[in-house]
Specification:
153 residues; alpha/beta; globular; binds zinc ion
Amino acid sequence: MSDRARRVHEHSRSLLRSAGVWRCRELDHICAAVEQHTGRQLVRSATHLDAATVHGAVVRTADIDYVIVESQTSPDHQQHILLHELGHLLCDHSDQAHGLLTRSTYTDPLEYEAEVIASLLGQHLRRAADPLHLQPVDPQVHRLLDSFGLLGR
Ligand SMILES: [Zn+2]
């Protein structure tokens, strides 16, 4: 592991400890802790996204953080996408892209950090055993995703 990767792992572990989700075994517990950490309501949604562009996104409105997950993939993959987006929220990457975060490339330091958090959180979850509680996407958020060209056809 490179020095940079080691630093990101150490930082991520201490962030997960301070947020109370280190070695957390329940997805609902993680989501509740993220809400505590951000002080904002978290809504988990699924819709069909443009897979060439994104598998997940966070849309922040005035009082709600919508985590959007690809609907047409496996529960294991959906869980990983969800954890990755929660990583962005825990790291407070919210000033990126004016409230709309999209998955790009893992060479991007922010994407790498979110990916490390997703894998650390995923290690302790029972694989695909927890319901993901993904709702249909809010119409306002759906329009926003559409306007950014992120919806699948
Ligand atoms: Zn990302």
